[in-house]
Amino acid sequence: MAKTTSIQSLATIAIVATFVGPIGAASAGDRLIHAEDFTTASKYDASFWLAETGFFRNKEAQYYRPANVSVRDGALVLEGRREAASNAAYKANGADWLTNTKSADYTSGSIVSRGAFTYGVFEIVARLPQSGGAWPAIWTVDERSGPYREIDIVEAVGNRPGKVSSSVYAGRDLKSVQHWGAETPMPGLADDFHTYRLEWRKDLIAITIDGREALRVNPEDAHKENLDPLRQSMHLRINLALGGSWGGKIDDTALPARVEVKSIKIWRVEP
């Protein structure tokens, strides 16, 4: 999700993913610590998730609102809409676009885990949209403290149909990160639910899609001098952005767009 001008010139290791075989379930020593099944639940766990409010990253067009996050028809739904919303943080002399933008023409939904995790197995079964301007993402990040670290389990953008991206970013700050990335062919992405999984241990980051590996990174490769970003805590996020630096032109005729999540499971792991 960290798409800024500065990242385009970063040290990058990029591959086009070729599926290399199935990856198993969580290991015997791992312990399931969080599970939500939206095929039977009537609401999401608000003690675990915070629904974001406001403008956030990448000069995206949407204004996030809790009202755009709901559970219905057997899924947790994050819905992007063409509708006006006032910016509660607006200041006429605001220092940046987050505060000096008075209103938005689009709204959408985003949730972030209230607690942070250091290592874990994260499994999300979801259906993602891929219409023009839609930018769904399932990722982990900590933007507030220490060196920058981010794991994009999956991102899809409507201006790049038929494939999804998985990435890892790590460094002193967002302007000086290393980037590992992979693209996975996903024709008909929006037609069905898929299983997106991150296994994060002390010496392993492995992202799989429908049980097959898309990207593998050793956290030690980001360990530089006194910085060890990929062994520090991060929050889990699921969001649907519209437009912005990577999302591209929004197709209003395809709205509302929806991220639909069938289930979420998180295991605590032996590092």
Question: Which regions contain 5 or more consecutive residues with pLDDT less than 50?
Answer: 4-24
Shape: globular
- Helix content class: under 10%
CATH architecture of the domain at 5-40 and 111-247 and 259-268: Sandwich
Distance between the termini: 25 Å
Share of β-strand residues: over 45%
CATH fold group of the domain at 5-40 and 111-247 and 259-268: Jelly Rolls
Order of helices and strands, N to C?
EEEEEEHEEEEEEEEEEEHE
How many DSSP H or I helices?
2
Main sheet specs: 10 strands, mixed
Chain-averaged pLDDT = 89
Structural class: mainly beta
CATH class of the domain at 5-40 and 111-247 and 259-268: Mainly Beta
Cα-atom radius of gyration:
18 Å
Q: What is the total tally of β strands?
A: 18
List the helices and strands and how they pair.
Blueprint (H helix, E strand, L loop, with lengths): L10 E6 L14 E7 L11 E3 L10 E3 L4 E4 L2 E12 L10 H4 L2 E6 L1 E4 L6 E8 L6 E9 L5 E8 L7 E9 L5 E9 L8 E8 L2 E6 L2 E6 L17 E8 L1 H4 L9 E12 L3
Parallel strand pairs: 1-13, 4-7
Antiparallel strand pairs: 2-18, 3-8, 5-6, 6-7, 6-18, 8-17, 9-14, 9-18, 10-11, 10-17, 11-12, 12-13, 14-15, 15-16
